[in-house]
What does this fold into?
Amino acid sequence: METRPKIVLFQCQWCLFSEPDQHWVDHELPPSIHLVKLPCTGRINPLHILNAIQGGTDGIMISGCRPEKCHYKEGNLSALRQHDEFLNFLDYIGYEKERVRFAWLDLQDRGRIQRELADFEMAVAKLGKAKILATRAHAPIGGEHV
Amino acid sequence: MTYILKKKKINQVLKGWFKNYDVYAPQKVEDYSQFFRLTSADDLVLNEPHNTRFPPKALFLPQSESLLKYDRKINQLKEAIPTPKPRIIFGIRPCDAYAVTLLDTVFNTEEYSDPYWKTRRDATIIIGLGCSEPCQTCFCTTTGQGPFNPEGLDALMTELEDSYSIETFTEKGEKLFSDLLLASESQQRKAQEIQKKAVESMTPAFDTTNLKHNLDQIFDSDYWATISESCLGCGVCTFLCPTCFCFDIVDEVQRNERVRNWDTCMFRIYSQEASGHNPRPTRKERTRQRIMHKYSYWIDHIGEIGCTGCGRCVRFCPVGLDIRAMLRAANTFESETINA
Amino acid sequence: MSEIKGKLKSEIERLLREDIVDVVIAFRKEDSPLRPQPAFFRNTDELTNLEYNSLCQNNLANYLTRFPHDTRIGIVVRGCENRSVNALIVEKQHQRENLFLIGIPCHGIVDIKKIIKKTGEEVTEYSENQDEITVLVKGQKVTFPRKELLHDSCLRCVHPNPVDADVLLGDPLPEGDPSIARQAVKKIEAMDRDERYAWFQHETERCIRCYACREACPMCYCTECFVDHAAPRWVESDVSQGGMQAWHIIRAFHQTGRCTSCGACERACPMDIKLTYLTEKLNDDIREVYQFEAGMDRETQPPFASFNLDDKKRFVI
It folds into this structure.
């Protein structure tokens, strides 16, 4: 791909324990990566993921805390099952589930978010531009029903 | 004038029209037919025993259309009024064509004209196909029209053995068919026989003489609670209805666009007000609204029933509600309670 | 069939006469023999219109959420309907103590669209027995084997017997083979990625956002549906590709672990969209991963309503 793949990063606000890492995400994220910061990955709803996909993103990365380490105790577990099944469902209708990746970060991780993103970007670049579901098209002028 | 169009010549005539017009006609989709723009004369489907599932009102009032687009970065707004090529609607049923004239009283009057409707309306020639064998669910004669009603049509086709007899009513219609052979006396008589037989095959579905009065009388009664109980409150009857025209205007902010969509009085949020109050809070009020609008309020507005008897609401209601039965019951409801 | 109807009538009469319930939800005859309607019986003299046959195509559990919890309701339930009732009870949408379930083991619902495809719409009479369906069309009698006309969901049915009825009218039927429930899913999974998306596109582009599927489904009872959210507007409101795809994806997804494969959504759809091919995939995954089927009892929470630290074994990198 000539241009870098578009990626949306859903980041749990607690998962980056090192100041330099958080600073990098807040200020030095490449322009092809769009940041959505959340109080917990448990807040993410399949609707948000679908919205990002329809907006034309090529890949979605969700970074959160490891299951036992959630700031809100079980927040990240409550949505895990939904996300897992949602990705299976999207795969069923033709959307590659490799385009969505979860990164569970740990207290001691330093520089991991940058590595994960770089790795993910390469993987998404290999998959190519997302061809389907990126359908925020304008309504028809003049009358055809779809 | 009445002309004859041999069935095997239809493709030729259509190809001639393609040069100067967009032609919209019923085409097959899965197990049913719907009006789409014809790209090949082979896609034409005229032999379905009933009208299209999805109403051709969509050709004048699309289910979703762009009203305007805006660009927030440069603070610019662009209206999206369509400029359609001249077009022909071919094979529409008289119930659907009459419905378009009813909708004209909403969108295309002296005092108010909807530009999105008007440009399409002015650019269209409407050729109807009459119904030689009306369905059980049709009741166009009850609402005051009929299977070969000419209102709203520029020309009307009657199916004969291997041809169609085409009666033109307007200059627009005349222009399209004047190259064809005129129908002979016997062909015209045959067409008239078929038309007469079709009208006679239909029995009145409900009595319209005092219908409006009866409905108005029972407005506050518990008649509506009983008939609306099984109603799901979906939008099938309203979206498939050729005369329903309610719409909602929405700003699709993620697309920088303002869109007009069909809306339905059967949804709770249709009448939901920003204050939180809903003047039609339960199913009963909403089902009542639909029936009152079609058979009483339309008469208040323009003196005509707002239903053309096309039968789609009867055929596709998921719970089998039949508006004809509901109106028959409404006619007798008052007298029952008086006698009780 | 008429034997069942007779038993049903007596049972409903008993429930009303002995004041066991305030209302009984069942079906009634309508003018068209093909379209019995859901009906609400409150007096025994209304029962002359009672109907029960394989054309009774709506999931009656849908109506439970309309009544206040203290209404005592009798309701006719077949296999999938009983599970829907249980699923609603698990989600606290009604209370079992106030429900009287009249269970009828189900031979399957006949799909009127299949009849119409074969004979046209001018059907004036309908009769059936366990093996055959007979219709009168323009004076001609036509008979079909039942299997040819059953709705696709019923052809894949695994649980025809009500699991929790207070009274059972009719003999229990053999349970279906669980592997047949996968048929719809297998068909789609056999296609390659592009074909799958093309199929999904083809189905959803016919949608007219009438929401008949939503209204016919007993598990869709939200007072404000996600499509009605305006701020922020997650799903496009119009019949654009994006709007329709989002509607179908998310609606099916909201049924995960709650859908009982009744097929009412598909039967309600006026545009013949194969909705069950979406919901069945989710049902299948839930069966496989969590060994869970909606509504089999009144206690077990659906998988998405709970979580477990063991989950991490499947997810964590």
